[in-house]
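Entry:
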Amino acid sequence: MSKPNVALSNLRAVVIIIVLAFHSALAYIASVPAQTSPFGEAPFTWQAFPVVDPQRWMGFDIFCAWQDVSLMSLMFFLSGLLAAGSLRRKGAWTYVSDRLWRIGVPFVAAIIFLSPLAFYPAYLARTAQPSFSGFWHQWFSLPFWPSGPEWFLWQLLVANGIAAVVFAVAPRVLEAFGRLAAWAGEHPVRFYGLLVGVSVIAYVPLALIYSPWNWSSFGPFSMQLSRPAHYLVYFFTGFVLGSYALDRGLLASDGPLARHWLAWWGAAVAGFALWAGLTALTRPEWAAANPLIQLASTLAFPIACAGGGIFLLAVCLRFSVRRYWVLDSLSANAYSMYLIHYVFVVWLQYALVGTGLYTFVKYAIVLTGALVMSWASSVAFERVFGAQLVAVRRAVSTVPH
């Protein structure tokens, strides 16, 4: 039986802060040109950059590039860690119904209510004579339904569904996964190489076909075409490690990752530098870059991704093993904060466009304001509606299957 891992709980809190920091910086990165195309016309770049402030700083480009490489993969990994334990306790059917309630329902609610609210400033910034009715006319005329950061939810739901099918078909697979996780704890460098190798197989072909940057949308379902299989690799990496234990092997607070966190820091920096240097040679037009440089850049991505994610995990396992009420609260509210934070981020960015403040001051205001407001909103929602939602969830889970 696994014991609770305080470091993993704290890592969840750290990750949600990084998510807010990443989205808060998007309005201020220097490499994004001013977006003058109308809201209702392609290429719809406002999906990634709803607000582009005239005052920007190159340092945010580096920060966002680093997080783009490893942050979402780490989130899939953390989600996968808990899958094995939940499947053992609940069984495949209850697990799936629970995931539909936990992930599917918020996804639908978010794209219906939160997405229009979050992207309204993008419409205001790109429309000469904006109006509420004009926004809805253009919104419903779009060839897709913008989902914003909630794209993560539907892909996570698919990953959970695949895990449930695997468990339902072969319940004893968890034993094999546990043995693999035990091996990884004894051979962390080989584990790193295996993770990179499988990620190369999942990522490189799609990145070469579609480019590393292209996105596609069908209704509310958006995906970065190069990464769906790559994210599955990280979810199932978490699934494998969680099948063994959450407090042993690689995940132990005195394990090989924690003990050698400094070496993983070096691997993370070297991997990111390799990827950034090669990727810079493919800019600004990926299609016009040398094919060998394209291949080298795509091969560098799995290396940088694994190094960055393992480093952050190692640091938390080494230095964040005590409980603090702030981190406990952030961890408990991380999911709700993820759902709602983008609304606060974009509106604060829009409100600060014409203020003339220094770039970093604007960024600090956006990050602090979004953090406080999304955190407070999550706590308030839980206090007001938490008991009712638990009752409804229990009623749904008792429906015969």
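The two ends are 29 Å apart (CA to CA).
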